[in-house]
Amino acid sequence: MENSNSRPQKGKTKKKLRLFRALTVVFALLFVGALVYAIVSANSNAKEIESLKRQIDGLRDTLTEKTNENIAFQSTVSSLSKQNEELNNKYEKLNEDTQSFQTTVTSLESQIEQLEEERNSLSSELESTKKTVETLRNTNKSLTDRINALTNQSSSSTEQTKIAYLTFDDGVSKYTDEILDILKRYNVKATFFPNWKGNSNEKYKRMIEEGHAVGNHTYTHEYDSVYTSLDGFISEVTKLNDKIYQATGYTPVIFRFPGGSNNTVHRNYNKDIMQQAISALSDLGMQYYDWNVNSGDADSSKGASKDTILSNVLARSTMDKAVILMHDTNTKGTTVAALPEIIEGLIAKGYTFGTLLDPGAPLVQSLKPES
Ligand SMILES: [Zn+2]
To answer: Considering 145, 169, 212, 231, which one is annotated as catalytic?
Structure first.
C-alpha cells in the first residue's frame, strides 16, 4: 500500500509546506510591521516626552519667576502696611491735637466773653467816674469863687501883710496824700518836716513837685537816738537828708528839732546837747525853725477834736507871720478834717500863705544860739 499511496501523498505534503511557508512569511511580515510600528511609535513618544520636559522646564522657570514676583509683592505689601500703620498713628495724634485745640478754643471763647463783661463794667465805671469828675469840677469852681470872695473881703478890711506858714511835722503818713490834695485844691503852699518812713518815695516827691518846702525833722524822731550824743544827732540829720535826696533829688536846708528847740526831753539824755546841735546845724548850712501857733493836735495822746484844732489855730493866729504847728501822722485824722476850714478861716482873717523857704519867712526860734 505504501507504494500505491506514495505519489499522491508526496504532492499533498508539498502543498502543505508551501502553505506553511506562505503563512510564515505573512507572520514574519506582520511581526516586522509591528516591530517597525513599535519603534516608530516609541520614537515619537520620546519626542513627546522631550517636548513635555521642555514645557515642564518652562513652567518651572515661570513658577520661579512668579515666586520671585510674589516675594517682591509680599515685601511691598509689608512696607505698605508699615506706612499704613504710621499714617494711622499720625491720624490718631492729629485727632488728639484737634481735640486739645478745640478745648483751647472753647476756653479762649469763655475768656473773651469774660473780658467783654469786664469791659462793659469798666465802661459803666468810666461813665460814673466822668460824672464824679464833673461834680468835683463844679465843687472846685464854687470853692475858688468862695476863696476869691474871702480874699476880696479880707483885702478890703486889712492890710496885705499877714502870712500864715502851715507846717506839718512827723510825716509821712497815710494822710499825706490827702493833706497834699487839700493844699492843692486851695492852691496853698506849706512846709513839711518829715522823718523817714521808708518805701514812701512818692509822697516826698509829691511835696517837692507840688511846690512845698521840705525840711528835716531827724531820721527816726527817737529822743534817745537824737539827743544822747552829738555824733548821734548829726547822723540823724544827715541820714534823713541823704534819704530825701535819694527820693526827690533835693536836699533839705531847714530843720525842726523833735519836741522843738526849747524841749526839756533832751535833759533825760544829754543836758548839753542843744547848743552843740545848734552849732552843728550851722556847720551843715541848715537853719532851724520852731513855731508861734500851736494847733494843739498833739496835745493829748487821744488826739484833739477837729473843732478844737480849728479854734486853736484861728484864735492863736494873731501875729502878722503865723508859723502854725500841725502833724502828719496816722493818728491825726482830725487835723486833716480841720484843714479846709483852717485855710478858709485864715483867709477870712486876711492871711495869705507861704513856706519857710520864702524870702522874709520869720526865723521863729525859741532857743537862740549862744553867741
Ligand atoms: Zn515831731
So the answer is: 169
0.85 exceeded by the pTM?
Answer: no
Query: Quick check: 214 and 232 in contact, CB under 8 A?
Result: no
162-353 CATH fold: TIM Barrel (3.20.20)
327 as an active site residue: the answer is yes
- The set of cell numbers assigned to 336 is 486833716
The yes-or-no answer on residue 212 being catalytic is no
Radius of gyration for the chain, computed over Cα atoms and rounded to the nearest angstrom: 65
Name the active-site residue from 212, 217, 221, 327. 327
Distance CA 203, CA 200 (A): 6
Residue 311, phi then psi, degrees to nearest 5: -70, -35
128-163 pLDDT tens trace: 888 887 878 777 777 877 777 776 666 555 456 999
CB under 8 Å to 213, separation ≥6 — which residues? 189, 190, 191, 192, 254, 355, 356, 357
Q: 88-113: per-residue pLDDT in tens? A: 889 899 989 889 889 888 899 999 99
Q: Which three cell numbers stand for residue 296?
A: 494843739
Write down the domain spans for the chain.
1-110, 162-353
> Which residues, other chains included, contact 236 with Cβ-Cβ below 8 Å and sequence gap of 6+?
218, 219, 220, 225, 226
Cα of 12 vs centre of ligand 1, distance in Å, is 189
